[in-house]
Specification:
Layout (H helix, E strand, L loop, with lengths): L17 H11 L14 H6 L2 E5 L1 H4 L27 H10 L1 H4 L4 E4 L3 E3 L4 E2 L4 E2 L7 E7 L6 H13 L3 E6 L19 E2 L10 H4 L9 E2 L11 H10 L2 H15 L5 H16 L3 E4 L7 H21 L11 E4 L12 E4 L2 E3 L8 E4 L9 H13 L6 E5 L16 H9 L4 E5 L29 H19 L2 H4 L1 E6 L4 E6 L6 E6 L5 E6 L9 E4 L5 E3 L4 E6 L4 E5 L1
Helix pairs in contact: 1-14, 4-6, 10-11, 13-14
Length: 560
Amino acid sequence: MVALGLAGAVMTACGMDAEARLAEADATLDPTPALIDPDGLTPAQFWNASTIYFLLTDRFYNGDPSNDNASGRVGESAVLRGYEGGDLAGLRMKIEEGYFDELGVNAIWLTPFVEQIEGGTNEGTGITFGFHGYWTRDWTAVEPNLGSAEDVRAVVQAAHARGIRVLMDAVIQHTGPVTDLDPAWPSDWVRTSPACTYQDYATTVDCTLVRNLPDILTGSDEEVDLPPQLVAKWEAEGRLEQERAELDAYFERTGHPRAPRYYLIKWLTDWVREMGFDGYRIDTAKHFEESVSAELKAEAEVAFADFRSANPDEIPSDLPFWFMGEVYNYVIQHGRDFPFGQGDVVDFYDYGYDALINFDFRSGRQGMDQLFSDYAARLSGELDGLGIVNYASSHDDGSPYDRMRLNPYGTGTRLLLAPGGAQIYYGDEVARPLQIEGAEGDANLRSGMEWSFDAEERAIREHWARLGRFRAAHPAIGAGRHTRLQESPYVFARILEGGERQDRVVVALDQPAGAKSIPVGDVFPDGTSVRDVWSGVEATVRNGRVEVDTPEAIVLLEAS
């Protein structure tokens, strides 16, 4: 049983059960797909208004059981540390079914789909395979257990057809671990020591992040040959000469030396050029030189332009290529200067990043209005024209917000109404458990998505869907100015103004069941007709207030 919290809980005052909440939702939820219209928005406004759905492809949905053991990997893994069958075909099916539309999602971030190491590791948590996608064997090939290059293209096409962007998870900092089947790359490609100690810039960047995870020498300008394991693999696959010819053309065009990072930049941006990815999420961004990010961004923009030129009718809008960084432990309060220690700071936004993942949100350390006010002020101040992405849980954060899923309604309310971009981690919207019997470490965060939702899970999902669709319809939620209109019960306004796009909303939370009076200040002048999106009830502003009689605790007001 999932317990309901206070802030943002659905109908606790009236004691409605899950079936009753679902009936209410069915009666009021607009069936029209909700997408952010980018017209009149700057790129920063669009992405701060966005809802991004992040998923582990292997754990999401199995659309093609025939590839469940396509790689031929053998060996029994520890609990939730092997491949479970989810694939690209399954993701495409859920896109085409409208699953993401219903949640108001306008971008999908999927874990890396490139080919993973052949063997498994045992680093104290049992045998683990590269099901998650971060243990790369070959940046130029698709992981067979997930599908094929054609499946990657089909996912991006299906998303674009519905106006949804797709973000590629780009790993440039490390290879996969060393196993009996996966030798270390040559020493002029990677380092295996010293271990990072995170005392300052050098001990965070010029080191190995994780034991047995060789670190690419991204700072080297020394020319290197292809790793012999790739040469042997490509030769066996009959594509060695083609890959060599493409590399020759790339290095001739760019003038870059054949240093390790430039090979990886070529391989990563090829996926943009061939598949049409709209942006990257950059993995472990603070553990390699920030100048490499700027080089990768520049080449990705060229690749994105090439794709657009070859496919002029596919990309949903004229938005530029988007760059989101995982700078571990970055919080919005850092502003533009991330501190490494010992006085070392880096402004990652100055190296191509349009947004950084905000690790502050999941801490839950601020009250709702304090958080909303702080975030909105910073996004209109030092971070004006830039972005953040908030999240409650993720694939590797051992301290998620509401780990035991005691308040999934309040979590959705807090996340989807917060200024800045919102990241839904797969299953957040149905309170997928984050503590699994027999699992250790981050495996707890990576259970399979169970699609036979019970009544309570469906009610939770409808709560998230209503908020997500309201957020998609109103970019002021993520990108507008925040004003508190009433402390208790809590009422606030978000206003987007001063540019080509105008948008105004008033949100009331923790309201009593039945008749309620909502102050709207000067957001909506007297005589304005407004609609409560949550209930579908319409009203007229009189004396700076809106009187509505609804059974629910949330009121979402827009001009009707």
